């Protein structure tokens, strides 16, 4: 069975965009010390799901469905990122307090918790052009999800013609 160029690009985006965004998140965390708050983690989970769903499209029937579901997962991450960016910019209150990073350095759990840095969800630790990481996730994820869905609609339209 042949795969349309629109579907191929949609699947590549559904697999590549979340992988790149997660890669960037982990590089910023482990390479630059920008530890994630709780709401940052909320944005990562849909990207993990999107990668899994996009991979399913290589093996399971109804491959367009799996890519569409990946796009929905990417869009959910973008929506969470938009909400988180609004919390960082002070547009509205968040749903959570702060998350801590508990070091695994062999000390007691209580000492680790008491000495761990507080990571605030309402403060952007980094920005580019005035846009926080959560804001960039919103912009990139939302645009990518919409592009994937448009490409999928083109691939099914061409398949029916």
TrEMBL record:
Protein species of origin: Qipengyuania benthica
Lineage: Bacteria, Pseudomonadati, Pseudomonadota, Alphaproteobacteria, Sphingomonadales
Name listed for the protein in its UniProt record: Disulfide bond formation protein B
Family annotation (InterPro entries): DiS_bond_form_DsbB/BdbC (IPR003752), DsbB-like_sf (IPR023380), Uncharacterised_DsbB (IPR024199)
Membrane topology category: Multi-pass membrane protein
Pfam families, per the entry: DsbB
Main location: membrane
Segments crossing the lipid bilayer: 41-58, 65-87, 126-152
Location of this chain's protein in the cell: Membrane
Keywords in alphabetical order: Membrane, Transmembrane, Transmembrane helix
């Amino acid at each position: 069975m042949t795969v349309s160029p629109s579907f191929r690009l949609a699947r590549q985006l559904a697999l590549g965009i979340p992988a790149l965004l997660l890669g960037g998140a982990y590089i910023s965390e482990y390479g630059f010390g920008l530890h994630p708050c709780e709401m940052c983690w909320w944005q990562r989970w849909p990207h993990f799901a999107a990668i899994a769903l996009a991979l399913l499209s290589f093996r399971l029937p109804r491959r367009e469905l799996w890519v569409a579901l990946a796009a929905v997962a990417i869009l959910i991450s973008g929506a969470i990122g938009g909400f988180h960016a609004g919390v960082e910019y002070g547009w509205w209150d968040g749903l959570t307090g702060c998350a801590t990073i508990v070091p695994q350095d062999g000390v007691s759990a209580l000492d680790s918790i008491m000495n761990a840095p507080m990571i605030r969800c309402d403060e952007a630790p980094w920005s580019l052009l005035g846009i926080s990481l959560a804001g960039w996730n919103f912009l990139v994820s939302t645009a990518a999800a919409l592009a994937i869905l448009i490409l999928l609609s083109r691939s099914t339209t061409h398949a029916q013609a």
